[in-house]
Write a structure and sequence with these properties.
Elements lengths: L6 E4 L18 E4 H5 L5 E6 L6 H12 L3 H14 L1 E7 L1 H17 L5 E6 L2
Antiparallel strand pairs: 1-2, 3-4, 3-5
This protein binds L-tyrosinamide.
């Protein structure tokens, strides 16, 4: 997530000429520009198709755990049904992992074979 920083010096002195001396030697503020704009990795939570989980149950799961509307949830469910898998949501690692645990546990408790997984987005 954090690449080696590229620092720029933000001068806070009127007579502080740019690029003079080593960084920080003339006062001013060092700003790590690259780290600041670096994006954290994101993860797609993916639902997998199966032959037994009812469509209504999948729609309910997508609405409950991924905050989608009925209309959006139906679209995602049909996409999974037709293509074999589909993205229910994109999250930071910790949240993606939590969604997968919650969905898989809820499906198992309901005695349906529905499974979700997550993978890093490209
Ligand atoms: N294929 C299932 C059926 O025909 C529906 C389904 C959709 C199951 C999406 C899982 O992730 C899934 N009842």
């Amino acid at each position: 997530m954090y690449s080696a920083g590229v620092f720029i010096k933000m001068s806070n002195q009127k007579n502080d000429s740019p690029n003079s001396g080593s960084p920080g030697s003339q006062g001013g503020v060092l700003v790590d520009v690259e780290s600041r704009v670096d994006k954290p990795k994101m993860y797609a939570v993916i639902l997998l198709n199966d032959d037994y989980t009812p469509m209504d149950f999948v729609v309910l799961v997508i609405k409950r755990f991924f905050g989608k509307s009925e209309e959006e949830a139906i679209k995602v469910m049909l996409d999974v049904h037709q293509k074999g898998s589909g993205v229910a949501g994109i999250y930071h690692h910790e949240l993606a992992e939590m969604k997968v645990m919650q969905v898989n546990q809820f499906a198992q408790m309901s005695q349906y074979p529905l499974k979700s997984t997550y993978e890093e987005t490209t």
